[in-house]
Amino acid sequence: MQRKYAAAGAGLLVMMLLAATMPAAVLGAGAATTSAPHQITVSLLQAALIAIGYYLANSPWLFGLAFFTLYRPLVAGFFVGLILGDPAQGTLIGAAINIPYLGFISAGGNLPADAGFAGWVGTTVALASGIDATKAIPIAFGLGLLGTIIFYGRMAVDSVFAHWADARAEKADIAGVALMNWLPGQAFLFVASFVPVFLLALNGPSAVQDALNALPLWTVNGLVIAGGILPAIGIALNMRFIFRGSAIPYFFIGFILMTETHGSVSLVVIAAIGLCLAYLHLNFVRRDAPLAAAAAESTAAPAQAPEPKVRLTRGDLIRSWALWTFFAHANYSYERLQGTGFAHAMTPIIKRLYTTPDDIRDALKRHLVFFNTEPNFGNVVHGTVIAMEEQRANGAAIDDDAINSVKSGLMGPMAGIGDTLSQSTITPILLALGIGIAGGTASGSAVPTLSGATGNPLGAIIYMVLVSIVIVAIGYTAWMQGYSRGRSFVTEILKSGAIDRVLIGAGVLGNMVLGALAATFVVVNLAPTVTIAGAQMNLQAAIIDPLFPGALALGLVVMTWWLLQRRVNPLALLAIYLVFSIAAAYPFFGPGQANSGDYSYGACTSSLLHQYSPCGAPPAPSAQP
User: Fold this and answer.
1) Using one digit for the tens of pLDDT, what is the confidence trace for 194-225?
2) How far apart are CA 447 and CA 255, in angstroms?
3) Residue 377 and residue 471: Cα distance in Å, rounded?
4) Which stretches of 423-566 are assigned E, i.e. beta strand?
């Protein structure tokens, strides 16, 4: 059965790729160029493909990998670029949008912002309107907030379908419970996802372009400034989990290394250096002798168990794992979260172990209760529960309370460990590598610009391949180990200190990459100058940068992290930073005050924040958004 689901998911992805790579004349796109901003008319077919892409980013059809691939703006930008005929520029815009979402975490039914909506719709609007990557960041952020409406609406409606599954369980209908987990929820999600994205993709670009053309030039420049400031929020959000203890200095090492080399070192090299330093760091961390002794004690051979009368096959385990991997979030609801997904995954196990309607009914109801954990590392919970169900079916004195106690007792710790590793460490590190390959960079004190005329789609492709391999391997290993070693598995891992060492090593590597990323994408420029002895002196270029290049950007990131540590709402920070960026772009002094159409940002002291330019005659007001 898992082959059928895998084939379906692969088929949908292949169809999307084939349609996206059709000639522009077939899709109705205008000719794409990379040498200058251009506008693209989005056709009905292209808008439909983009809307389907967003649905797939939230769907279960890609073997549980949609959240790690299509949901990420870097990948969404690549596919939107394919659909609109400019994958390189689409990848670059998606990479820029992804920076503020590096610290994105969705856990426990909470979605701070919809990164997928920001990626799919934001890239469409920016690419079709000819907006560059830095201006796309604040626009996409607003779209991401809009996308949460879809998520929370889905969470509320899916609670109804959980009760439909309860009714099937009362009838001992295994297939019916499975059907209720995916069919009604996915039908509703498709409509709720497709319709708004289709309409925005079709009509949004022209509306955004008209709005930008109507704005004063200084407000558009404020969006450019925000594009250099807002990434500090995403980086700081991720720092909350790894910027601690002995791993802190590595953040500054990564930042200084990238700054002093003027961005000439790739993030891949930074990551390689981070791996080496993590290895050296761990060799200086002593293992706690009592913990090692406890681990040795916990690995003692268990008492010999009697030969079971009914035994699960490896095929049963793989089918169960495949169903969970596909459908863990197919009917994600406020009332049960992953509860119906857990019951769906247990259906092959229940079929094998139980034959009477009463036993089947009890087993289905037992696993339709509330459940939530990280869906890959947390697979040890499922493996452990399956082992307990097998023992129960063979006469062991294991009741409903024992099984549910294990589920509720293990799901929390595994959610904490899993989210820290998968969402806060592995995904951001691999995304940072992909973003670096995609081509986003900063030069000196400039606002983040393009490393060339276009981006590199390999950044998105390499990220997709790497994250898919890692996540699938983790999920399969955790599932099988949970089953083979039962309830003692998690206890052994925690006692041995292995998780602590993994977290420390990942913290070293993650801090190196985040530091380099902060130096690359976070930009703060002081434009004002002072006159000393008749000479014009820019405060940043003449004083701050010679002492510590990038000090303002580093200070902004650390300050943002400090504010988040004190529970300042990141959405509040987003609003404050965005308003401040636009206000700081206003020409309070310097040329252009008399005529609103003559805000000459090439001249000195024209605004508070902007890339510094030497004083000189103001250029003609010819710039356009």
Assistant:
1) 999 999 998 877 776 666 667 776 776 777 77
2) 17
3) 9
4) 440-441, 449-450, 529-532, 535-538
